[in-house]
Design brief:
Blueprint: H1 2-8, H2 16-25, E1 27-31, E2 36-38, E3 46-52, E4 55-59, E5 66-71, E6 76-77, H3 80-85, E7 92-95, E8 99-105, H4 106-115, H5 119-143, H6 146-156, H7 160-163, H8 166-173, H9 177-187
Antiparallel strand pairs: 1-8, 2-7, 3-6, 3-8, 4-5, 4-7
Helix pairs in contact: 2-4
Length: 188
């Protein structure tokens, strides 16, 4: 749990009083590999902090899921559109490795906003992080080639390639597994 406090303190000072309120509402949960945190049609009930693990967001398609995001340790994870509006999700969130999350319910987050001085700052920071990640992804799809996206992923997350099936990486960069194999051969 201290990992979360350190993360939050990168953007704002967390008083002991505020931390007592926040930490009292956090629930630690462990998930095994290949567990759905959320499926299409379910409403997101949590904003979570990833202590350990890798997760993927994807739209299920017959024979070829469309992976559009990966989330790693020391990050927030949520089907944020579903969470904010409390409407059913249009995509899945799945653990790719054993995962440990610290979770807040929608109601507990609202209480933190009201009961702490820093709650709104934390909520804004989590929102901004999720928004910026989404924006960077969209711009990358518009401005970079699949090879450039692959190289960026390889540079930023080299461990990803040991822990995530290549078909998910191919989907994420917007190519078929065969096209990813050609890119990898060309680079090597």
């Amino acid at each position: 749990m201290e990992q979360i406090r350190k993360y939050l303190e990168r953007t704002a000072r967390v008083t002991d009083k505020d931390w007592q309120v926040i930490s009292s509402k956090l629930v630690r949960q462990e998930f095994s590999k290949k567990t759905y945190l959320l499926e299409v049609g379910q409403t997101e009930k949590h904003l979570s902090f990833v202590e350990k693990g890798i997760l993927r967001f994807y739209v299920p398609k017959e024979g070829n899921d469309l992976t559009f995001s990966f989330v790693f340790h020391n990050s927030f994870v949520s089907a944020y559109d579903s969470f904010l509006m409390q409407i059913p999700s249009t995509y899945h969130i799945e653990t790719l490795t054993t995962t440990v999350l610290w979770r807040l319910t929608y109601e507990d987050l609202q209480a933190i906003y009201q009961e702490t001085e820093i709650g709104n700052t934390i909520g804004r920071h989590a929102s901004e992080e999720l928004f910026l990640k989404k924006s960077r992804r969209e711009l990358s799809l518009l401005n970079h080639t699949a090879e450039q996206r692959y190289l960026k992923l390889l540079t930023e997350y080299p461990h990803l390639f040991q822990q995530v099936p290549l078909k998910y990486i191919a989907s994420y960069i917007g190519v078929t597994p065969q096209a990813l194999s050609r890119i990898r051969r060309r680079i090597n």
